[in-house]
Amino acid sequence: LEEFGQVRVLQRARFPVPSAEADTTFTMPGDYDFLDITVPRGAWNHSLGPSATVFEVPAQFRSDDGGEAVLAGEAISFGPEGATFGQQGVEIELPLNETEDFGNRQFEVRF
Fold this sequence. Notes:
Distance between the termini: 12 Å
Number of strands: 6
Structural class: mainly beta
Strand order of the largest sheet: 1-4-5
Largest sheet: 3 strands, antiparallel
Shape: globular
Number of helices: 0
């Protein structure tokens, strides 16, 4: 979040350390319950559990820059900082409303 400066946090959730014995799925509570994080068995290599912060991207990062990439109004930051994953990785599900008219924009996930 530091690269955006001060942001308006819309929701924050911290989850327990995932199971080393079975796949673990966490669901963001409340208005963002469409967001799931699944950590495969044994993939989590951190002493703290995962976290997710939904925040509003500041206006200066949302403006169109001559056809260059534009960030949406809300973004999600996953933590904790410095977390690494085993070979299996982690699955994050972010559904997109396909009935919405986004014009000719393309979507990209950056990490």
